[in-house]
Amino acid sequence: MKTKQLLFAIVALIMFKANAQPLTAAPTPTTHAAADVISVFSGAYTNLPNTDFFPNWGQGTIVSDFIVSGDTMKKYDMLDYEGTQFSSNINASSMSNLHVDIWTANCAAFQFYLVNTTTGAEQQVTLNPTFSGWNSYDIDLTLYSAGIVSNIGQFKFQDNPMHYHSSTTVVYLDNIYFWKSASTPTISGFSIPAKYVGDPAFNLTAPTSNSNGAFTYTSSNANVATISGNTVTIVGLGSTTITANQAADGSFGTGSTSAVLTVSFPPPSTAAATPTYLSSNAISVYSDAYTNVSGTNFYPNWGQSTTITNITISGNATIKYDNLNYQGVEFVSPLNVSSMQAFHFDVWTPNCSTLDFYFINQSPQVEQKVTVNPTLSGWNSFDIPLTSYTNIDLTKIGQFKLVGNNGSTIYLDNIYFWKSASSPTITGFSIPAKNSGDAAFTLTAPTSNSSGIFTYTSSNTNVATISGSTVTIVGVGSTTITANQAG
Fold this sequence. Notes:
This protein has helices at 2-19, 146-149, and strands at 37-41, 62-68, 71-77, 81-90, 97-104, 110-115, 122-127, 135-140, 152-159, 171-179, 187-188, 195-196, 202-203, 208-209, 215-219, 225-228, 231-234, 238-246, 255-264, 282-286, 307-313, 316-335, 342-348, 355-362, 365-372, 380-385, 397-418, 426-427, 441-442, 447-448, 454-458, 464-467, 470-473, 481-485. It is mostly beta strands. Strands 20, 21, 22, 23, 24, 25, 26 and 27 form an 8-stranded antiparallel sheet that branches. Strands 1, 2, 3, 5, 8 and 10 form a 6-stranded antiparallel sheet that branches. The chain has 2 helices and 34 strands.
C-alpha cells in the first residue's frame, strides 16, 4: 500500500509539471526601429512571411499556438527537438543579438541551434531557464560562427538531454527576433583650428553626418573654453576636448565625435635682433647669423614635460618651448669657450618670469645656474659674463639645462658665446710735408695685423680734403690725417 501511494505522488507531480503553463504574457520587447530588427515570431514587429514552425523532421514534439492576455506564443509539447524552416535564408550578419523569451516548468537546458542549410553546418547555444517565470535572453551572435549567421535557413530547438519520442518537456516561446542597436550615425569632418589667448569667440561648424539629428556641444575644460550653443569663447591657455553630440533621429541612434582645441599664447610678432659680433669672435649654438656647433641635441629625453617646436618668425628660425619645466641641450663634444667673455641668448615669453640657465660639466659632474628675469613685453637680450659661472670648467661644457616657471612658454634665439673684437696693431703711417699748390697725392696705407679696409679723414678741410685715399692741397696750415680701419 505504501508503495502505491508513493507511485501515485510521483505521477501527480509529473502531471502537475506537464500541465503547468504561463499565466502572464511574455515581457514587452524593447523598442527597436524596424530597420534594426529581423523578426521571426513576435507581436511587436512585422514577422518574416511563410515561416514553417512545424516542419516534418520525424520529431515527437507538438507545436501549437497558446494565448495569454491577448499575447500569442508558441507552445512546444513533448519537446525532444523541433525545427523552424524559413521561406528564404536569413542574413543576420548586420545584427548583434538574437532575442527569445522562454517559459518552462521542466526544461533545464534548452539548446538553440542556427542551421546553414546551404552547407549543412549547424551550431547551438545552450540556455538554462529558471522555472519561476519568463526568461528573456539576448544571445550574442558572436557565439555563432559568421558563416552560419550570414545564411540561416533553419532554427532547431532541442531539450538536453533529448528524450526521443518520450519527452515530457514543455516549453513556451515568444518574441524570437534578431536585433541590433539603433544604427550609429557616421560622423566625420569635425575639426577645430588652434587658437590664441585673446582671440575672439567663434562658431563651430557642425560635422558631416548621415543622420539629421541635432548637434549640441560640450567643452571638457571650462578653464580653456566655454560653449553656448555652437559659440566657443576662449577663456585661457591649455587644451580642451570639444565633443559634438548628435541626437537620435529616425532609424539612427545617438552619436558623437570629438576634436581637441589647443589654445596658446600668440607668438612674437617680430624676430629677435640680428647679432653684430664678428663670426671669428663667436661660438654659436643656435643662430641664423653664424655657423652653429654641429650635431647639437636640443631635445634629449630627460623625462621632462617640455615640448619643443622649431618655428620661423619673419624668416628667422626660432625655438619654441611649451609646457616648460626643464629642458636639456647636449653637445656632440664638450665646448671650449674659455677664450670668450660672455654668453648671449634672446628670449621672448608671455608667462615665464624666472628662467634658470645652467652650464653642465659631465666629467666630473658639475652644474651651475644663472637666473634671469625676462619681461613679458617683448624680446629680452641677455649677456651673462662667463665669470658668473664660477664653478664651471669653461673648457668642457657638455650640456645646457633650462628651468622655467612650471608650464611656461618661451621662445629662444641667438644662443652663442662672444668676445669683443681685438684692436688691430697699426704702424708705419706718415705723410711728408707739402707746399701750397702741390699736386694731389695718394696716401700709403699703414701696416696692420688686421685685414680691415682703411678709410681716411682730414681734421681741417681748409688745408686738405680727402676722397678715398687721394689728398688734395687746399691752403696753408696743418691738418691731421686719420687712417680708420674697419673690423
